[in-house]
Amino acid sequence: MALLALVLLPAAAGGLAFLIRPDAPRRAMLVCVAIAHACMTAAVWRVSTQPVLNGWIAMDAQGLVFLSITSALFLAVSVYAIHFLRNEQHGMRHDLEEDLLFANAPEAVFTGCLLLFLATMTLVTVSQHFGLLWVAIESSTLASAPLIYFHRHHRSLEATWKYLMICSVGVALALLGIFFLALGAERSGLEGSMRVADLVAQASQLEPAWMKAAFIFLLVGYGTKMGLAPLHTWLPDAHSEAPSLVSALLSGALLNCAFLGILRMMQVFVGAGQQAFAQQLLVVFGLFSIGLAAVFLLEQADYKRLLAYSSVEHMGILALGLGLGGIGAFGAMLHTVNHSFTKALLFLAAGNILAAYRSKSTRDVTGLARTLPATSFLWVAGFFAIAGSPPFGTFMSEFTILRAALNQGRYIVAIAYIAFLSLVFIGMSRSVLAMAQGPPPDRPINASAHESWQAIAPPAALAIVVLLLGFYVPPALNALLHEAARSLGGM
Amino acid sequence: MDVWLNAIMVLLVFSNLILLGAGRLSMYIRCVAFQGFLLGAFTVLAHISDLTVHVWLLASVGTLLRGIVFPAFLSRLLRDSGVRREVEPYIGYTPSILSGLAMLGAGMWLSVRLPAPAIALPRFVVPVALMLIFVGLFLIVTRRKALSQLLGYLVLENGVYVFGVALVQKTPLLVEMGVLLDVFMAVLVMGVAMFHINREFDHIDTDRLSTLKD
After folding, report:
1. Residues of B at the A interface (Cβ-Cβ below 8 Å)?
2. B208: buried, middle or exposed (CB in 10 Å: 19+, 13-18, 0-12)?
3. Contacts of B156 in chain A (CB under 8 A)
């Protein structure tokens, strides 16, 4: 029942949020639900939970990794949201990029959708049934679409429409993949159960032809939502137009949920001992994503799009790690944790910068170190972390994936991987470091209001986690990640 | 039974071809509503040997949503937007119909290569399911109006549904209802987005949605 409560609590609170009129209690509820969700997630680490709904909802190693990431990010984002919502004045406001006026979506709708988004993502992490997992992933698209359209102008509307259309079509194709999988199971005389554990146990009896067809459709479908190139086209638009705290959740939590959909299918392949086919595809998609993102990062003039393409790159790294197998699968799991925390930190810092400078162009932002010292420090630290420099956790995980490639003697993959990562480093460092240095611009900067503790503490906490993970992975987390990697053909 | 199933499949093919050749948006909505009723009948006929409560529930809820609720909601949106026709699609109507026939051919070619479905259904079901999927994707890519794209999504979803009924014997009720609920929510959310597109631009052309690029 504990697992059901994890889903139902934010769902109920989300419904309630639509009804609460005054702002203060609604904001308080958002933070309270986030804290309660985080506490319950922490409890799941200590106490083993009972499967519910006929084993459709249960907790396993992968689920717990992704649930913990989602819960922790949501806690950070909810604190940040207080500061964000207070600064978003009501009524009509002037657009940053064009000469137009727009209003915000009602705050009650925003908070309600934020909580429903948490509920659907939690359901993704605890689903042990391919059908239920599909329903949860599609629901997370629908719950998050109104969040992207918080600033109601034509650019965010365009981003929302693209997001809805591309992801819904992608996820519909994934449903076709699930039908193929079910057909494979039926034809092999298995009793039509689509629970992950049952399919893994009987995987060797599944017809390989149907499994392969299923994997292709699931990879294309969930890969669209995960942001693997060339299916990533919705991602830069949605991430750049959504409010920064929503981008943080999209990048840090939602993309992971889609990745979990692919991981579940991978488990079945590993159970059947047929993972070579899936791994081959993942390596190709992964390297292509990293390479394409590197190219787009080189000349990127919008710092939120910069972060979005960096997400495409890191999703590629996850796919590559999973595709390499061995210690690569462990590296991918560790990298999921590192990337989520780092990217959320960067998006929250970007939110502070955007609020102060009122421009998303890297050229307009100079002298961060003087105007917003704390944000500037986090921004630069976050950049070094996301680029995979020591001593941050991302260095460890990216290096682990490199070692996997070298161990298997796949030198071409390793060389391409290093070359693309260097390109990314060069491309990002040019924009990011130029933003921190130099003299502040002549126009007045509204700096004091944007360094309140609610704006600094959440990204700072995330930064500390990423830094600590570089030095020391706690044994409990290490064991969990290894357990998750083992069922994915790793060690 | 096969006669009736084949008749439904033929009607689905016709509705696809009309959809590809039509310019009036109200016609699009009517075609997709018609497909909703056909899908309901298909659900019952495909399980004619064991008509459980499950099948009836699925067929009735599905028909209610696809055949009545969605069309009513979309017609309402269309009336409010004051738009009547699809204007200058990226691929014209006659080439669209010809492509539709090619898609049916491609569906047949592919279905021969797939192993036989689990329940004994006429061989014509899988090609039509594939055609629905292709036509849905085609409409999304080649039509300019947000409404046409939404209907394209529904046609795609219909295709996936026919595939599911044809191929898989036992999908749990909870999953099928969940899928239906998701489609319902998708139509609702997209409909609201369309309402905003209409208000923002005074029309529902998605080609105006092209500011964001690198």
Report:
1. 115, 117-118, 133, 137, 140, 146, 149, 153, 156-157, 160, 163-164, 167-172, 174-175, 178-179, 181-182, 185-186, 189-190, 192-193, 196-197, 200-201, 206, 208-212, 214
2. middle
3. 169, 172
What residues in A contact B160, CB-CB < 8 Å? 172-173, 175-176, 179
| Residue A54 backbone zone (phi > 0: left; psi -120 to 50: alpha; other: beta) | left
CB A120 within 8 A of CB A135: no
Task: Please name the residue of chain A whose CA is at the shortest distance from the CA of residue B140.
Answer: A165
* CB contact (8 A) between residue B209 and residue A161: yes
Q: Is residue A276 left, alpha or beta, with left meaning phi > 0 and alpha meaning psi from -120 to 50?
A: alpha
Give the burial class of A83: count Cβ atoms within 10 A of its Cβ; 0-12 exposed, 13-18 middle, 19 or more buried. Answer: buried
pLDDT tens series, chain A, 491 aa: 788 999 999 999 999 999 988 889 999 999 999 999 999 999 999 888 888 888 889 999 999 999 999 999 999 999 999 988 888 766 677 777 777 778 888 889 999 999 999 999 999 999 999 989 999 999 999 999 999 999 888 889 989 999 999 999 999 999 999 988 888 887 776 666 788 888 888 888 888 888 888 999 999 999 999 999 888 999 999 999 999 999 999 999 999 999 999 999 999 999 888 888 999 999 999 999 999 999 999 888 899 999 999 999 999 999 999 999 889 999 999 999 999 999 999 999 999 998 888 888 888 888 888 888 899 999 999 999 999 888 899 999 999 999 999 999 899 999 999 999 999 999 999 888 888 888 888 777 766 566 788 889 999 999 999 999 988 889 999 999 999 999 888 76
Spatial separation of the C-alpha atoms in residues A404 and A331, rounded to whole Å: 8
Q: What is the pTM of this model?
A: 0.93
Task: Calculate the CA A74 to chain-centre distance.
Answer: 11
Contact B186 A142 (CB under 8 A): yes
- If one counts every other C-beta atom within 10 angstroms of the C-beta of residue B80, the result is 12
Which residue type sits at A97? E
Which residues of chain A lie closer than 8 angstroms to B107, CB-CB? none
Q: In whole angstroms, what is the distance from residue A362 CA to residue A82 CA? A: 26
